[in-house]
C-alpha cells in the first residue's frame, strides 16, 4: 500500500472518528435533555402529590368538624332537659325529677340511635366478640354459657363495638 493510500485511510478514519464524536455529543445532549424533562416531571408529580395530601387532610378535618357539629347540635336539647331536671330537683319536686331524668335519658338515647348507635343484645349465649364476662355462676335453670345478668349495657356503632356488654354468665 502506498503512502497516499495510507494517508487516505487515516483521513477517512479521522473523519469517521469526528463524525462519531459529533454523534456521541449529540446523543449526550439529547440524553441530558430527556433526563432534565424526567426530573421536571417527577418534581411536578411530587408537588401535585403534596398538594393532594394537604387537600385530603383539610377535607378530613372539615368532615370531622361537620360531624361533630351535627352531633353536638342534636345533643343540645338533651342538655336543656338536664338543666330543667336539675331545676326541678332544686324545688324538691321528686316526681318531676324522676320523670325529667327519664325523659332526658330517652331523648339522649333517641339522638344516639339516630346517629347509628345500637344496643348489643344479651339474650341467649355468651359471645366473646360483643360480651365481656365479669363472672361465671352456677345456675341450674340456665344452660352453660348463657347470659344470666347484664351488669352494663354494651353498644355498637355500625360494625364497631364501642363498648362490650358486661355480663354474668352461667357455668
How is this fold's topology laid out?
Layout: H1 3-90, H2 94-114, E1 117-119, E2 131-137, E3 147-152, E4 155-157, E5 160-163, E6 165-170
Parallel strand pairs: 2-6
Antiparallel strand pairs: 1-4, 3-6, 4-5
Helix pairs in contact: 1-2
Report on the structure:
The chain has 171 residues and is of the alpha+beta class. It has helices at residues 3-90, 94-114, and strands spanning 117-119, 131-137, 147-152, 155-157, 160-163, 165-170. The protein has a domain at 118-171: Nucleotide Exchange Factor Grpe, Chain A, domain 2 (Roll), CATH 2.30.22.10. The protein has two helices and six strands, in the order ααββββββ. The strands form two sheets. The protein has a three-stranded antiparallel sheet with strand order 1-4-5. It has a three-stranded mixed sheet with strand order 2-6-3, with no helix packed on it. The protein starts with a helix and ends with a strand. The mean pLDDT is 86.
Please outline what is shown here:
The protein is 64% helix and 17% strand. By secondary structure, it is α+β, with helices and mostly antiparallel strands. Helix 1 runs antiparallel to helix 2.
Series of secondary-structure elements, N-terminal to C-terminal: HHEEEEEE
Level-2 CATH architecture of the domain at 118-171: Roll
Query: Approximately what portion of the residues adopt beta-strand conformation?
Result: 15-25%
Number of helices: 2
| Class from helix and strand fractions | alpha+beta
Mean pLDDT: 86
The general outline is elongated
The major β-sheet equals: 3 strands, antiparallel
Low-confidence stretches: none
The strand line-up of the biggest sheet is 1-4-5
The level 1 CATH classification of the domain at 118-171 is Mainly Beta
Radius of gyration: 40 Å
